[in-house]
Amino acid sequence: MAAHPPVCDFGRPALDAALPGVDGRSHRIFEHRGANGLLIAFICNHCPYVKAVIDRLVRDANDLAPLGIGTVAICSNDADAYPEDSFDKMRRFADEHGFPFVYLQDEDQSVARQYGAVCTPDFFGFNKDLKLQYRGRIDASRKEQAPPGTARDLFDAMRHVAETGEGPREQIPSIGCSIKWKDAA
């Protein structure tokens, strides 16, 4: 089922947490911030929306790194109910797509809840002070491959954040599969 995140809550502070990475190490989210900001992408392995944009996310993360923007990806889906999002398959997914950023598992879903993430992909772009400046889409493609020349909404917004500390006031929300929440026990 497709879900849309709310509009950007400008200035909302980022939250730190320690999560296991597919590299076998524990990572604090803030360890991966760049000098000019941090992009946190809530993604998963099985969502068709993520599959359609993953290579562009890798490209954008590579292009943002020299601008001082670090990137972290987090999978918060219930891997028991959705085995394609298991930790082992997360590792394989990261390898297949050449992730230049850490891919972290939020098994208890606490980080996704703290951030208010609602879908995959759901992007949170923070400035150097770790204040939210972008909560929009990667581009206009949705579940399809983007045609050449498609505007790079996420990259352009985060480049602006790196240069000015502020995100664009006009943002189009991402769309994706809803996060697969665990049943309340």
Automatic annotation (TrEMBL):
Gene3D superfamilies per the UniProt record, alphabetical: Glutaredoxin
Pfam name, any one: AhpC-TSA
CDD domains assigned to the protein according to its UniProt record, in alphabetical order: PRX_like1
Gene Ontology MF term list: antioxidant activity; oxidoreductase activity
PROSITE patterns noted in UniProt: THIOREDOXIN_2
Top-rank taxon, per record: Bacteria
Stretches assigned to the Thioredoxin domain: 8-160
InterPro entries: AhpC/TSA, PRX-like1, Thioredoxin-like_sf, Thioredoxin_domain
Name of the protein described by the UniProt record: Thioredoxin family protein
Organism of provenance: Jiella flava
Phylogenetic lineage: Bacteria, Pseudomonadati, Pseudomonadota, Alphaproteobacteria, Hyphomicrobiales
